[in-house]
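ESCALATION

Customer reports they have been waiting on this structure for their group meeting. Please prioritize. Original submission:
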Amino acid sequence: MATEPFTCFAVAAPGLEQIVARELKALGEHPRTEDGGVSWEGDTRSVMRANLWLRSASRVVVRVARFRATAFYDLEKRAKRIPWASFVASGRSVAFRVTAHKSKLYHSEAIAERLRAAANAPPPSEEDDAQLFVVRVVRDEFTISADTSGELLHVRGYRQAVAKAPLRETLAAALLLACDWSGESPLLDPMCGSGTIPIEAAMIARRIAPGLHRPFAFMRWPEHDESAWRELVTQAESRIVAASPVSILGSDRDAGAIDSARANAERAGVANDIDFGVRSISAIDPPVGPGLLATNPPYGVRVGREATLRNLYAQLGNVMRKKMPGWRLVLYSPGARLTREIGLSLKELLRTTNGGIGVSALVGTVPGSAIG
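Update from on-call: job pushed to the front of the queue and completed.
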């Protein structure tokens, strides 16, 4: 790999930068939030560790070059100095994701062609998993970063069966991390769909690293240190606890969704940690609390219509007041029109997007004391 230390960057969905920064601090890094993510000074091991452990980031890249260029001659000259051989094995194809703003060089394909020529690598093909480079040009300043993750980090490898409007794993984890749930109190999702929130909760409760069972782009780099990676994996495996110390429940009215959730939990290795069941919100039977009800209810945009969902949100509030005094509620919401039907005082934790829809993560507590 190129000379260490180098600048690492964890790409984050809008609004999740602080969550990712907290995760990196817990890993011993010194993060700085920036536009689009979080940066830190790291080495090979910290890149591996970030990919292995980050639950809410989208991908991890390392910055390989930063320079100014106002003509293609300048770009070609600078690009030849980049240590491409540290990131691209001989014969492996490369892909470039180029964005340019307020710059003299702005044609993304032309920029990619010059960089590919400097790397002396073929264009992407169906037969080869190309090494991705992310290129950002702002006011003639080029920042070129090598992707270390490969597939986006929300791809843990367990979710092959999905229900309607599935929630990404990174967003599910961020919802739990934003309200500081760490597996020390019961958790319930009464609209769990394909089970992403309960599964991510079980992985947090059992201290399972989200990247433990998937490949990463850095594994194909010529200078990849396999022994260092195996050491990190062994350390991560040693931290896993045998079973969730708390009850985790997931339910949904859709029997097909629950079948998908159980299959996903089995692939994630947490099937025995989650009690899945087919039931309506009014029929939920929460464990002894207080605990956390975490859910991603339908928004009335893709699943259901807003007018028909008001009763659903109102029912959620009624059931929580009746059965779950002292519990906390955290959910993603597209706006106040629906969440006001819950009838609880809710505080905004963050704003982000889910499937292109702007949503807020809201948290509140049900008045009263938990029975038992």
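Sent to customer with the following note: The first helix runs from residue 17 to 26.
Escalation resolved.
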